[in-house]
UniProtKB/TrEMBL annotation:
It comes from the Eukaryota. Residues 581-673 form the DYW domain. PPR repeats lie at residues 65-99, 135-165, 166-200, 267-301, 367-397. It comes from Anisodus tanguticus. GO terms for molecular function: RNA binding; zinc ion binding. GO terms for biological process: RNA modification. It holds the Pfam family E_motif. Keywords: Repeat. Belongs to the PPR family. PCMP-H subfamily. This is DYW domain-containing protein. Signal peptide: none annotated.
Length: 673
DNA sequence: TTAGGGTTAG
C-alpha cells in the first residue's frame, strides 16, 4: 500500500476505532515515519473527537516537524480548547520549532477567546521575529485579537502599518469598531476602504448594518440594503435577519416587518429580531402577538425571543402573560441567568417586587446585570434602604460598574436619602475610579435639589468636566420650582431653554416655574415657543389589567361603555372623601378655568378612570395595578390615598418614573416624589 | 491549512 491510498479512508472516517485500525495498518506497513501521514492521523483522531489518542500519537513522534505541531494545535482549536492551544504553542516554542502562518493564526485566535491580551502580544512579538508580520492571515488574526479584547487603539496601529490588506483585514476592523460601539469610526473606515478600491462583500455589509443601528442612521441602512440588491449579494437567512434587526433597531418597524414577511425561510433568530424590535420600541402588543404567531408557525421560542416578550409584558404591565411565560420557561427547563433577570425585571415592573425578590433569592449564581437589575427594581419601588443593603452585599462579591451606581443613586434619590447619595457618589469617584456620567450627576442633582440644597446642586453641575446636558438642568429646575428658589431657578430655566428640549413636559415645567415666580413675560414667551414648534402636552393615559386584559383610559375619555358607572362611582367616592376632609387641589389643573370646571377636570384624570374601572370589575379586596404614561398628578395622589381606605384595597400605581403603593391611606413614597 | 458575520436582561 502506498501513502495516498489512505487518503480517502481518512476523509470519510469519523470513528476513533476505525482510525486506530488504519493507524495499525500504517504502522505495520512502515508508512508512519512519513510526516504528512502522522499529521493526517492526528487530525483524524481529533475530528473523531478522540483528542487523547491524538495527543498520545503526537507524544510518540521522535522528530516533530511544524506540521505535526500544527495538526495538534488545530485539533485543540477545533475542539474549542483554547487553553490547550496555548499550551502546545508554548511547548513548541520552548523546543525551538519555528511556528508558521497557521500556528500563529490559531494561537492568536485562542488568545482572543481567552481574552488574554498579554499572551497575544507576546505571540505578536514572535510573529515579527519570525518575519510573518506581512502575512494577511496572521495580520487579520492579530487585528481580531486586539478588537475582541477591546483594544481598538492598538488594532489601528497594526492595521496602519500593514503592507497588504485584504477584505478580511478591513472587515475585522470595521466590525471591531462597530462592536466596541464606535459606529461612526466603522463607517469612516469603510469610506477609506472604498477609496482604496476594495469592494465590500456580504460580511462587510453586516458590519455596516450594525453600525447603522448603532448610530441610528437609517439612511446608511437603506443604502446598504440598496447596495446588496444592486450587487446581487447572496441574501441568506442571516443577511435578511440582519436587515430585519437593523430596521427594527432604527425604529422602522414597518420596513422591518415587510422584509420579515418576505423571507422564504425564517429561523428562530429572525423571529426574535422582530419581536425584540417591537418590544424595544414600546410596541408591546405587536411583540406579544408575534410571539404567539411564532409558536403557531411551529417555532420553539428561544431565550432571546422570550426575554424580548418579557420586556414587552413589563411595558404594558401584562402580568398574566408574564406569568404564563414564566410557567412556560419553568416547564421547558430553559431557565438561565438572562431569563431569570428578565423575569425579575418583569415582576418588579408589574408591581410584584416580592415575586422579583424570591426569584432573585433562588438564583444559584448572580452576574453583574442581575445585581444591577434587583437594585434598580428596589429603587423604582422607593425602597432606597433595601437597595443600599443589596449594594453592600454585592460589593463583596462582584465589582460594581457605572450602571450599578446609576441604579443605586437613582434608588437613593427616589427615597430622598441625601446624605447617602453624597457619600456613595464620592465613593464611586474616589474609590472605584468611575468617571461620573450625565446620568450619575442627574441623580445627585435631583436628590440635592429636591431636598432644597439647590446651591450645592448648582456647584455640582458647575464642577462637571463635560458640558452639562438637559437632564441635570431640568433636575435643578424642578428642585428650585418646588422650593421657590427663584435666582438659581432662573439660571436653570435659561440653561434648559438654551438646550432646546424636545419634550413638551420640559417646556411646561419652565413655563410653570416662570409663572410661579410671577415672571409673566417669560412664561408667555415659553408658551409661544411651544406653540410655534407645534408641541402639545402629551395626553394623560392610564391602563389597568383586569382578568388578563389590558384596559386603557385617556383623560376625559367619555367613550367607554362603562363610563356612566365609572363617573357615578367616582362621585360617590368623592362625597365620602370630602366627609373625611378631602379638598380638591385645583392648582394641578394648569389652565385658566372656573373652579368648578377644574374640579370636574380632576375627576376625569385618566388614573382615576382606570382605578374606578378596576374597582367595578374585580372582586372586593383584589389589588389593583394602574400604569400611567406621565407622572402621577398631585391631586390624584391624595385621592388614591383616600380611596385605598374607603374600599380597603391595595392600589399600586406605576407612573413614568416610579411606583406608588397605596395602602390604608398611606403611599409608599411618603409623599416624596 | 489558518482569519472577518445575525437575536438577548440593567
Amino acid at each position: 500500500m502506498r501513502l495516498h491510498d489512505f487518503k480517502p479512508l481518512f476523509l470519510g472516517c469519523r470513528h476513533s476505532a476505525l482510525i486506530s485500525q488504519i493507524h495499525a495498518v500504517m504502522v505495520s506497513s512502515g508508512l508512519l515515519s512519513h510526516g504528512n501521514s502522522i499529521s493526517q492521523l492526528i487530525s483524524s483522531y481529533a475530528k473523531a473527537g478522540d483528542l487523547e489518542s491524538a495527543h498520545k500519537l503526537f507524544d510518540k513522534i521522535p522528530l516533530r516537524r511544524v506540521d505535526s505541531w500544527n495538526a495538534m494545535i488545530i485539533a485543540y482549536s477545533k475542539s474549542e480548547c483554547p487553553v490547550e492551544v496555548v499550551n502546545v504553542y508554548n511547548q513548541m516554542v520552548l523546543e525551538g520549532v519555528k511556528p508558521d502562518s497557521s500556528t500563529f493564526t490559531v494561537a492568536l485566535k485562542a488568545c482572543m477567546i481567552l481574552q488574554d491580551l498579554e499572551k497575544g502580544e507576546e505571540i505578536w512579538e514572535k510573529v515579527v521575529e519570525c518575519g510573518y508580520e506581512n502575512d494577511v492571515f496572521v495580520g487579520s488574526s492579530v487585528l481580531n485579537m486586539y478588537a475582541k479584547c477591546g483594544n481598538m487603539d492598538k488594532a489601528i496601529v497594526v492595521f496602519e502599518k500593514m503592507q497588504r490588506r485584504d477584505i478580511v483585514c478591513w472587515t475585522t476592523m470595521i466590525t471591531g469598531f462597530v462592536q466596541s460601539g464606535k459606529g461612526k469610526e466603522a463607517v469612516d473606515l469603510y469610506r477609506w476602504m472604498q477609496r482604496e478600491g476594495m469592494v465590500g462583500d456580504g460580511v462587510v455589509m453586516l458590519g455596516l448594518m450594525q453600525a447603522s443601528a448603532n448610530i441610528a442612521d437609517t439612511k446608511l441602512g437603506l443604502s446598504v440594503h440598496g447596495y446588496m440588491i444592486r450587487r446581487a449579494l447572496p441574501m441568506d437567512v442571516n443577511m435578511l435577519t440582519s436587515l430585519v434587526d437593523m430596521y427594527a433597531k432604527n425604529g422602522e418597524l414597518e420596513i422591518a416587518t415587510r422584509v420579515f414577511r418576505k423571507m422564504p425561510y425564517r429561523n428562530t433568530v429572525s423571529w426574535s429580531a422582530l419581536i425584540s424590535g417591537f418590544a424595544q420600541n414600546g410596541l408591546a402588543v405587536d411583540a406579544l402577538q408575534l410571539l404567539i404567531e411564532m409558536q403557531v408557525s411551529g417555532f420553539t421560542p428561544d431565550v432571546a425571543s422570550l426575554v424580548s416578550a418579557l420586556l414587552a409584558c413589563s411595558h404594558v404591565v401584562s402580568l398574566k402573560l408574564g406569568r404564563s411565560i414564566h410557567g412556560y420557561v419553568a416547564r421547558k427547563v430553559i431557565m438561565d441567568q438572562v431569563l431569570s433577570t428578565a423575569l425579575i425585571d418583569m415582576y418588579a415592573k408589574c408591581g410584584l417586587i416580592s415575586c422579583a425578590r424570591s426569584l432573585y433569592d433562588h438564583m444559584s449564581s448572580k452576574d453583574l446585570i442581575c445585581w444591577n437589575t434587583i437594585i434598580a427594581c428596589y429603587g423604582i419601588h422607593g425602597h432606597g434602604r433595601e437597595a443600599l443593603t443589596l449594594f453592600q452585599q454585592m460589593k463583596h462579591k462582584i465589582e460594581p460598574d457605572h450602571a450599578t451606581f446609576a441604579a443605586l443613586l437613582s434608588a437613593l434619590s427616589h427615597s430622598g436619602l441625601v446624605e447617602e447619595g453624597r457619600h456613595w457618589f464620592d465613593v464611586m469617584v474616589n474609590e472605584y475610579k468611575i468617571k461620573p456620567s450625565e446620568k450619575h450627576y442627574a441623580c445627585l442633582v435631583d436628590l440635592l435639589a429636591r431636598a432644597g440644597e439647590v446651591e450645592e446642586a448648582k456647584e455640582l453641575i458647575i464642577s462637571m468636566e463635560t458640558k452639562p446636558g438637559l437632564a441635570v438642568w431640568v433636575a435643578l429646575l424642578s428642585g428650585c420650582h418646588k422650593h421657590k428658589k427663584l435666582l438659581i431657578g432662573e439660571l436653570a430655566a435659561n440653561r434648559v431653554l438654551e438646550l432646546i428640549p424636545e419634550n413638551a413636559g420640559t417646556y411646561v415645567l419652565v413655563a410653570n416655574f416662570f409663572a410661579a415666580a410671577k415672571m409673566w413675560d417669560e412664561a408667555a414667551v415659553v408658551r409661544k415657543v411651544m406653540k410655534k414648534a407645534g408641541m402639545k402636552k402629551v395626553p394623560g393615559y392610564s391602563g389597568v389589567e383586569v382578568n388578563g386584559r389590558h384596559h386603557a383610559f385617556l383623560m376625559g375619555d367619555t367613550s367607554h361603555p362603562q363610563y356612566e358607572q365609572i363617573i357615578r362611582l367616582l362621585c360617590n367616592l368623592e362625597n365620602e372623601m370630602k366627609a373625611m376632609g378631602y379638598v380638591p387641589k385645583t392648582e394641578f389643573v394648569l389652565q385658566n378655568l372656573e373652579e368648578e370646571v377644574k374640579v370636574k377636570m380632576l375627576c376625569n384624570h385618566s388614573e382615576r378612570l382606570a382605578i374606578a374601572f378596576g374597582l367595578l370589575n374585580t372582586t372586593p379586596g383584589t389589588r389593583l395595578l394602574i400604569t400611567k404614561n406621565l407622572r402621577v398628578c398631585g391631586d390624584c395622589h391624595e385621592v388614591t390615598k383616600f380611596i385605598s381606605v374607603i374600599v380597603k384595597r391595595e392600589i399600586i400605581v406605576r407612573d413614568v418614573k416610579r411606583f406608588h403603593h397605596f395602602k390604608d391611606g398611606i403611599c409608599s413614597c411618603g409623599d416624596y416624589w
